[in-house]
Amino acid sequence: MSEAEGPIATGPEPVHPQPPTPEAEAPKRRGASNLVLRLVSAAILIPPVVWGIFEGGFWVPLIVTAMVLLGLREFYKLIKAKGAHPLETFGLVAGGSLPVIAWLGSEYHTTLLLSAVLLGVMVLQLQKARITDALESISGTFFGVFYVGWLLSHAVVLRDFYRAVAARLGPDAVAGWDPDVGAFYLFFCVSVVVGGDVGAYFAGRAYGKRKLAPQVSPGKTVEGAIGALLAGLLVGVALKAFFDQVAPTLSAQLGYVGCAVFGLLLSGVGIVGDLVESLLKRDAQVKDTSNLLPGMGGMLDRIDSNLLAIPVMYYALLAWTFLTTRVPA
Fold first, then answer.
1. Cα gap 187→26, rounded to integer Å
2. What is the DSSP letter of 206?
């Protein structure tokens, strides 16, 4: 390049925050105090979520939409720390619309909206004066809507599983079902993932030696992952036994074997979901996505495992129902 041509404008260099404090340098009392903060935050967060799951109606998309908006804001904060310039307002509106569309329609309609979102992102990007970060802007905006909005919107259709099965297999397939069976399935999924997280925490602290994914999350161990799988299995079976006593119509469609299988599956998927978010945070060089929930980090830190587990539960449960339900010809 000659001097007469001048430098090519590439925009400001991305500003990276300081990396998190290495675990070896962290205060020793942090583990105990962090656990107390986690318990306090859980005591505040869990009751309204559980109430919303069993109350149903518009409360489910309302709660899910709030989680999506908070999680999306934190996600866009992550990629902006990497120097990207997402279409944040458009992404928030699109992502917040997905749970509502899922409630009014189905996951098929959310997929249609997702396709329209991608087209809209590309059209809006064409009108931006800054074109040097088009690839980052389009991919970052759309991935946020997909990762947080589309995946979590499956909580709405899982809660309304009765209607989903009736629409696919006909009314005979749900004959004798409790219309609120989806409340059990959604509560089951969230509880197994939380149980797996707790099992991984204590098993990792007590026995953790071998690193599970040292480059992604140095604190996670193979022993912790085994603890998560065992805890997920136990929670799944325990929930079946509990609901068979207090609300047998809700748990009647999934036997003990099914609950054990889903307990193992969901706790394993939860580990993957947690590692994916850890990968994103490590790339952005932050420890937590925000300080919204004391001891827990941000909303995205809390829903990361369920972002994958809930869609897996929904589609695997559809397949399980199709294979185990006899529908008259």
1. 35
2. H
The percent of residues in the chain predicted with pLDDT above 90, rounded, is: 63
Q: How many residues in the chain?
A: 329
Distance CA 82, CA 101 (A): 31
Q: What is the DSSP string of 217-261?
A: EEEEEHHHHHHHHHHHHHHHHHHHHHHHHH-HHHHTTS-HHHHHH
Report whether pLDDT(12) > 70.
Answer: no
Using a CB cutoff of 8 Å and minimum separation of 24, what contacts does 322-326 make?
322/168, 322/169, 325/165, 325/169, 325/173
| Short-list 71, 50, 72, 52, CA closest to 62 | 52
Query: How far are the Cα atoms of 103, 198, 237, 271 from residue 257, in angstroms, in the given order?
Result: 30, 23, 8, 22
125 near 87, Cβ under 8 Å? yes
Q: What percent of the chain has pLDDT over 70?
A: 88
The predicted-structure confidence for 60-91, as pLDDT tens digits, reads as follows 999 999 999 999 999 999 998 888 889 999 99
Q: How confident is the model at residue 326 (pLDDT cuts 50, 70, 90)?
A: low
128 close to 43: Cβ distance less than 8 angstroms? no
Question: What is the pLDDT, as a whole number, of residue 317?
Answer: 95
Residue 146, SS3 per DSSP: helix
Other Cβ atoms less than 10 A from the Cβ of 5: the count is 7
Amino acid at 12: P
With a CB cutoff of 8 Å and minimum separation 6, the contacts of 220 are 200, 204, 211, 212, 213, 271, 274, 275, 278
Q: What is the mean pLDDT of the chain?
A: 87
Q: What is the pLDDT of residues 215-274, one digit of tens each?
A: 888 889 999 999 999 999 999 999 999 999 999 999 999 999 999 999 999 999 999 999
The Cα–Cα gap between 141 and 144 comes to 5
Considering the entire predicted model, what is its pTM? Answer: 0.86
Distance (Å, whole) CA 171 – CA 291: 46
135 C-beta neighbours (distance < 10 Å), count: 11
